[in-house]
Each structure stands twice: as C-alpha cells, then as structure tokens.
Write a sequence for this structure.
C-alpha cells in the first residue's frame, strides 16, 4: 500500500462550484498533515495545515479522520486560479521528513 | 517575505559529471531538506540536515549524493557521477523547528537534465 494515496483526477470543476477530494495515509503514527498546492513545474506551496478538529481558511476546509486515516480538502466557490495540483503531505512522529501523495489535479473552467 | 532561494534554476550536465545544486534556506531556520520530483511523478524525500549533520535520508540518497553546509547561509547537494535517471526537479526546503505541525518552505527548484 502506498504511504500517501490520492486520486490523481483531473477534477473538472465549473467556476463557482464546490469540489472535494480525499487522501489516505498508511502510517497510523503520522502526526502532522498538510495540503500543499503545486502549479505546473513550480515548487509546492503550503495551502493549509490540517488539524484534528478540522479547520477552515477562507474557501478551503480541511478535515482529518484519524480512525479511517484519511484527510479531505473542500474548495468552495471555485476560482479559475484554483486550478492546480493539490498535494496531500504527511509527517511522521519519528522524523521530520514529509511524505507526499501523488497529487490531485483540479481544473476550474469558466 | 523570507524565501528559500536555489541556484541555478536549470542545469544541463553530461552523464558521469558531478553537479552541485545550491540553496540558501530562510535565515532563522534550523532544518534543511532536499526533495526531488521526476517529471510526472510525486515529490520524494532525499535527505534532512540539522546541526551540521544528516538527520535522516531515504534509500534514494546513496553514496553518489552528499550534502554540505559550507558556510552560515548555503546548503548544497552534490551528485558525484550523474546518471540519466537523476534528471528531475530538485527542491530545497527549510523549516524553523522539528515540532509537530511546523511547515516546510520550498525553494523554486533546480531542474537538472542529464544527457
């Protein structure tokens, strides 16, 4: 089983719509969870950290389900500029390396 | 806003040659990392570095790779004898602390092409 698994997409989303997607992780000892955004051939940029109680940042909502070992990201009122690859990232308890999922590609269309 | 900077942005090298990729982490950060991303694939961890030594490395980071912090600001990745399969985007990252939840900031990357 892959350490961090994501649906590669693409998710084709009409502008203004809501899109949600998940990521699963295999290591139950994982401690920190993040969503990063990556534009084509650019560096990953932190979108938001994911907390146990769930958290919201503007149009973005992240949830963590430790029992089922998955993380979700919901984007409301999608903008054209939200088109990107969203990377699910997990940090373990023992070390400080980040383990990346393969990314979910989102295409927002007018 | 402070940022991680990497040079060069693109390097082309012949197979078997040595390359050095350079990074300047954010100045008050203590942890430094190298990741790589082969075109079309996921970002993969190579190595982390703290207090002038490697703290963790992946199986990718074999004897052909080395890291160094030659002075107070630069952090380098050396590939001793490049192979075609080393062609990838190499990202340097740094973080302030090892604490749970601390984010890592990434540089813009060096695209390495081995021919």
């Amino acid at each position: 089983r892959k350490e961090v698994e994501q649906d590669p997409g693409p998710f084709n989303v009409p502008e203004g719509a809501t899109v949600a997607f998940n990521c699963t992780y295999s290591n139950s000892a994982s401690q920190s969870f993040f969503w990063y955004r990556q534009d084509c051939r650019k560096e990953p940029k932190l979108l938001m950290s994911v907390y146990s109680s769930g958290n919201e940042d503007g149009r973005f909502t992240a949830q963590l389900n430790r029992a089922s070992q998955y993380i979700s990201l919901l984007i409301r009122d999608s903008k054209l500029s939200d088109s990107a690859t969203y990377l699910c990232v997990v940090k373990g308890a023992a070390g400080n390396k980040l383990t990346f999922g393969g990314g979910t590609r989102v295409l927002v269309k007018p | 806003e402070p940022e991680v900077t990497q040079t060069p942005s693109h390097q082309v090298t012949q197979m078997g040659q040595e390359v050095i990729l350079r990074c300047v982490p954010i100045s008050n950060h203590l942890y430094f990392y190298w990741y790589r991303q082969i075109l079309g694939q996921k970002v993969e961890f190579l190595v982390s570095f703290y207090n002038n030594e490697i703290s963790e490395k992946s199986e990718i980071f074999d004897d052909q790779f080395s890291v160094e912090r030659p002075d107070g600001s630069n952090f380098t990745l050396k590939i001793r004898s490049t192979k075609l399969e080393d062609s990838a985007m190499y990202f340097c990252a740094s973080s302030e602390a090892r604490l749970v939840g601390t984010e890592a900031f990434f540089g813009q990357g060096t695209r390495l092409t081995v021919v």
Summary: The interface with chain A takes residues 31, 33, 35, 41-45, 48, 55-56, 58, 89, 91, 93, 95, 98, 100-109, 111 of chain B (CB under 8 Å).
